[in-house]
Write a structure and sequence with these properties.
The structure is a homodimer. Chain A has about 190 residues and is mainly alpha-helical. Chain A has eleven helices and no strands. In chain A, about 35% of the residues are buried.
Chain lengths: ~190, ~190
């Protein structure tokens, strides 16, 4: 969080949440956001193409971070262990921005266009994860199966983390979901 | 397939594939489609709101069919077994329309808007599946976890089915993925 104080990009992202929450995403203006950040509209457009990008710019960072962790997992790691390494670094990044993530999610949940964009980002995350597993030598369809499973774990753990009254750490919820997988996947 | 011959709705859906494939989804017109089906544009709009709906109208049927099978699985079925019953009826429906599904998928794959729509439909399928499991008494987060896992299986099996040179049945590919799940999910 600390490094966000200094840079205009981070300040704008944080400043956008209040107008999006208070006035709704569609009604909030770039002028509102810039004013709250103590910056100009021109500066806003130097960092973001539009209002929506403010909420999704972080997903590139998340995707790159996840792919990096999967790629650099030990060669001996199983596909699901390598994928888990990716989920964990993503979870740790979001954990550092918990309040931002929570407010952002409430905004996204209220707007169908933003929900669609979120689905697209998640599909992209899943594709990147499968690609990275393949580059580790995991064959198809195991790479796609593992990636779908891992992203499913991530989605459910994310929903729980965002709404958890006890504020349990995201990585803990991921671990819990992963432990349940073989049990839930086993047919009678 | 047989019952499609008689009804205008089915004839229009099948007739749409050629212009979408040949001219691209964006360039094809409702006039093209109606002409190929031997019907009027007016009839088209009595059945479909727009060009896109022709490709997605079947997803309601698929979702209802899947939910019905999950709901009516034996009370003793585990969550994944109940979900599998849903996947199987969906797979059987698509199997009967294999050529349509294959051509449709090639059209969807080429168009970003259609791909987005497909993601939304899949997310809706996952939500419906989780809802239906909860109505069977499956608690959270097990219902969401099982649903995400099942939809992941469905996605990967669908991709394989659509592109499989050996034309293996969809249900067989689903079974194969389900059998692999506990293995892939087990960490070392």
């Amino acid at each position: 969080m600390a490094r966000w104080q200094g840079d205009a990009r981070g300040r704008l992202a944080k400043a956008a949440l209040a107008p999006y929450s208070e006035r709704g995403f569609d009604n909030a203006t770039v002028a509102d956001i810039a004013q709250r950040a103590g910056l100009t509209e021109r500066t806003f457009f130097r960092h973001y193409a539009d209002k929506r990008e403010v909420l999704f710019a972080g997903s590139h960072e998340l995707e790159a971070l996840m792919a990096g962790a999967v790629a650099s997992a030990p060669a001996s790691a199983t596909p699901i262990d390598a994928a888990t390494a990716g989920l964990n670094v993503a979870a740790e990044l979001l954990q550092q921005r918990r309040e931002f993530a929570r407010q952002r999610q409430a905004i996204v949940a209220l707007n169908p266009d933003l929900r669609e964009r979120e689905l697209i980002k998640l599909a992209s995350l899943s594709n990147t994860l499968a690609d990275t597993l393949r580059r580790r030598g995991v064959d198809e369809p195991a790479a796609s199966r593992t990636s779908e499973m891992a992203i499913g774990v991530f989605k459910v753990a994310f929903e729980r983390w965002i709404h958890d009254a006890n504020e349990r750490p995201f990585v803990e919820l991921i671990r819990e979901s992963l432990e349940q997988l073989p049990i839930l996947a086993g047919t009678k």
